[in-house]
Amino acid sequence: MDNIYIVDDEAALRDSLSMLLRAEDFNTEQFATPAAFLEQVNDLPQGLVILDLWMPGMSGIEVIQELNRRGVTLPIICITGHGDVNTAVKAIKLGAADFFEKPFDSTQLIDRIRHCLQEKQNQRQLDVFSSRAKEIVSKLTPREHEVLQGLVEGLRNKQIAYNMGISIRTVELHRVHVMDKLEAKSLSDVLKIAIAADYENIKL
Q1: Which single residue of 30, 53, 66, 156 could bond 14 by disulfide (Cβ 3.0 to 4.6 Å)?
Q2: Do 81 and 148 fall into the same domain?
Q3: Taking residues 134-149, what's their average pLDDT?
């Protein structure tokens, strides 16, 4: 189950949102104040934040700014009952995923929550793939890296050999080593890994 963190000073809204989300198979946790949320946020599992933009003591904007300062990347959906679109726009510019004005459509909110969580999951998978790609590409020798660059540029073995001043047979051997090290089964795999690794900026 995905985790949803509700940060709002209105108990009735927190309870109704929690009931709605639990019916949709989400885990929920409520926070009555920004301070209570910020005190625990670094230890919370991955999830999504539903954040009221207008709360006493500390605004939702200030909460987002503090999360950014800490490097916390939980998706945030803001809610406001004041019709303050300018504040909501500021929240979006600071990184919030979306905002809803009270009263909001519960179906639209659920759909948006699911979409945000899926986007976050996809990004985590991309980040893991990119990190792994950088790690394995960095283990290539300078010669293997040159061969990789040639492959990414779409050059044939003959052209790579000419550019490097080595024999085609040597290029073929380097190519085998590159594919082995990258754990690639095809040229398509090689290209995907090289691009994910930002291969041109890898320091050997």
Answers
A1: 30
A2: no
A3: 90
**What is the C-alpha to C-alpha distance for residues 73 and 61, in angstroms, rounded to an integer?**
15
DSSP states of 6-73 = EE-S-HHHHHHHHHHHHHTT-EEEEESSHHHHHHHGGGSPSEEEEEES--SSS-HHHHHHHHHHHT--
Q: How many domains is the chain built from? A: 2
**In which band, very low, low, confident or very high, does the pLDDT at 147 lie, cut at 50, 70 and 90?**
very high
Structure tokens belonging to residue 11:
């108990």
State yes or no: pLDDT of 14 exceeds 60.
yes
Show which of 129, 156, 185 is a domain's final residue.
Answer: 129
Q: What is the pLDDT of residue 197?
A: 87
What is the residue range of 181's domain? 138-201
Which residues are CB-contacts of 13 (< 8 A; sequence separation ≥ 6)?
52, 102
As given in the structure block, the two tokens for residue 124 are: 């985590």
| C-beta separation of 163 from 152 below 8 A | no
User: What CATH number has the domain bearing residue 192?
Assistant: 1.10.10.10
DSSP string, 148-203: HHHHHTT--HHHHHHHHTS-HHHHHHHHHHHHHHTT-SSHHHHHHHHHHTTGGG--
